[in-house]
Design a protein that fits this description.
The chain is α/β, with parallel strands linked by helices. The longest helix is centred in the middle third of the chain and has 18 residues. The structure holds 2-phosphoglycolic acid and magnesium ion.
Length: 223
């Protein structure tokens, strides 16, 4: 395998976290007197970090009114409280993830998570889901000054792993992973089962689409 490092997205790539994110989102909306949203709608709001999710949840009102910074800050506090309560309760590891991570590790690749989810939720979730041990580095939404789709988090992860971005593989479910990895000069694979802000993954600027992390490991082994 020509890749010395593999950087994996979290939400929609390693874990299906939408049930918990939707529960916290609707608990926040209920506390603010807003009606419940379908889980599928919440899923289209995930991808650019928690603050962006909260802004989109607040902007989902009949008038399309955008929240003020003060309203966003207050709602974010409420969301955080609820998400801490449920984080991991209904999350699941996608099929093929453990098999794929084992295969990448056996092939000698250094593994990192690169997520837009804040550190306070990411680290306990990785532990709870039994995946923490696979990763030598975890770069979260608040680790760097900018989040994906900026290349900064991927470049930071490569630096921490001592890996050349050109010899590194990124795997994700969304436009944010694709654009960030492209800008970082990495090879990038997309998975179709996650949350791409409601868009078709077939339109993403990626090297290929694979059906699972296990298939991604096979794809990489052939190169
Ligand atoms: O927190 C988000 O918005 C998405 O997180 P991800 O980068 O792991 O997909
Ligand atoms: Mg994702």
């Amino acid at each position: 395998m020509r890749f010395s490092a593999v950087l994996l997205d979290l939400d929609g790539t390693l874990l299906d976290t939408i049930p918990d994110l939707a529960r916290a989102s609707n608990a926040m909306r209920a506390e603010l007197g807003m009606p419940e949203l379908p889980v599928a709608t919440v899923a289209t709001y995930v991808g650019k970090g928690t603050e962006n999710l909260v802004k989109r949840l607040l902007a989902d009102n009949p008038e399309g009114r955008q929240p003020s910074p003060e309203e966003t800050a207050r709602a974010l506090e409420i969301f955080h409280r609820h998400y801490h309560e449920v984080n991991g309760d209904e999350a699941s590891v996608y099929p093929g993830v453990v098999e794929g991570l084992e295969a990448f590790s056996k092939a000698g690749a250094a593994l990192a998570v690169v997520t837009n989810k804040p550190t306070q939720f990411t680290l306990p979730l990785l532990e709870r889901m039994g995946l923490a041990g696979y990763f030598s580095q975890v770069v979260c939404g608040d680790t760097c000054a900018r989040k994906k789709p900026d290349p900064m988090p991927f470049l930071h992860a490569c630096e921490l792993l001592g890996a050349d971005p050109a010899a590194s593989l990124a795997i994700g479910d969304s436009i944010n992973d694709a654009l960030a990895a492209r800008a970082a000069n990495m090879t990038v694979l997309a998975l179709p089962y996650g949350y791409n802000e409601g868009m078709d993954v077939r339109n993403l600027p990626v090297d290929d689409i694979v059906m699972s992390i296990a298939e991604a490991a096979q794809w990489a082994a052939a190169r």
